[in-house]
Amino acid sequence: MKILAIESSCDETAAAVVENGRKVLSNVIASQVESHIIYGGVVPEIASRMHAEAISGVVKEALDRAGVTLDDIDALGVTYAPGLIGALLVGVNFAKGLSYACGKPLIPTHHLRSHIAANYITSPDLEPPFLCLVVSGGHSHIVAVKDYTDFKIIGKTRDDAAGECMDKVARTLGLDYPGGVNLDRVSKNGDPLSYKFPRPRVEGSKYDLSFSGLKTAVINTVHNAAQKGEEISVPNLGASCINCVTECLVSNTIEAAEEYGYKKIALAGGVSANSVLRRKMTEICAEKGFELFMPELSLCGDNAAMVGAQAYYEYLSGNIAGPELNAYATMPIDNIIT
Ligand code: KG4
Ligand code: ZN
């Protein structure tokens, strides 16, 4: 079964053709990063307009690179939630129109489920159940993937996402958007123990996370140093911040896997590209005997191949939408409403 997948939840306009949820025949991404850099973050109105300009060409390119036409496509998958509402609506309306015009089923696909499904492409033998740490710009979840379309949130951030925390710290340090990836790059040779930051404590749910206090502590360190005319070391501060964020993510995930009895652990989302997170997870999983799955770097950020992978399993479970499909800025991963 060949699915044409479309993704437009944030600042990448993407389309892909994916066969049986695992084999990527094409994967096209038009990034808007250059247009948002001067603003230090994504401007939603600009993102929507750029999606509208790019989407026809990106979809055509995905079909061409896969060597197929619409006649060869069995269904359309589209990201309908969560994300920037104006941006999502461009992809959803384009997919609805195409579905109606060519009479192919339309599969609404949840963005975080798709991030998890990026692992099915990189690791063709991976099957649920497994535990997944989903870390993106807007979300930080520890999710039990009980089946391809059956999820349970075991822990989540109470405030900022890990990606948001690193993006804001990066911006305070004068690094360009997208901050997380630049913070990772400039911190490579920094000393992760040079600055001490409090490890966030969350009352109540054992596996919940919190990053806003850490973000404020790091930003205050930068501002206090500036007021006193003291130098700060960007690599050291960046490495210390990344160390703190990744320690929380890794320890909560490992403890959750132990308590819930999962032997397989996966990473997903843009922050899963972080070099320290990947190294720490690799080390601890080897030491404790967990099998670790990580998307290849090109599939960590937003792309449509992962949408095509998840859409296949949504289709198998009967998740098909009609022309009434809407886009939603927020939508829990375990509660799908179309
Ligand atoms: O999943 P994603 O591409 O978009 C959302 O769905 O949010 O994640 C984007 C986030 C941004 O916060 C970005 O800074 C972060 O992923 N990110 C990283 C790295 N690469 C991307 N954070 C830390 N280290 C990286 N190498
Ligand atoms: Zn994403």
Structural account:
By secondary structure, the chain is of the alpha/beta class. It has two domains: 2-116 and 299-316, ATPase, nucleotide binding domain (Nucleotidyltransferase, domain 5); 128-297, ATPase, nucleotide binding domain (Nucleotidyltransferase, domain 5). Helices cover 43% and strands 19% of the residues. The two termini are 23 Å apart. The structure holds 5'-O-[(R)-(carboxyoxy)(hydroxy)phosphoryl]adenosine and zinc ion. 5'-O-[(R)-(carboxyoxy)(hydroxy)phosphoryl]adenosine is lined by residues 10, 115, 136-138, 163, 166-167, 178-181, 184, 269-271, 273-274, 301-302.
| Average of per-residue pLDDT values | 96
Strand and helix order:
EEEHHEHEHEEEHHHHEHEH
- Looking at the structure, the CATH topology of the largest domain is Nucleotidyltransferase, domain 5
Total count of domains: 2
What level of helicity do the residues show?
A: 40-55%
CATH class of the largest domain: Alpha Beta
- Each distinct ligand: 5'-O-[(R)-(carboxyoxy)(hydroxy)phosphoryl]adenosine, zinc ion
What is the number of beta strands?
A: 10
Which secondary-structure class do the elements indicate?
A: alpha/beta
Shape type: globular
Could you describe the largest sheet, including whether it forms a barrel? 5 strands, mixed
CATH architecture of the largest domain: 2-Layer Sandwich
| SS element count, helices | 10
Output the radius of gyration. Answer: 20 Å
CATH superfamily of the largest domain: ATPase, nucleotide binding domain
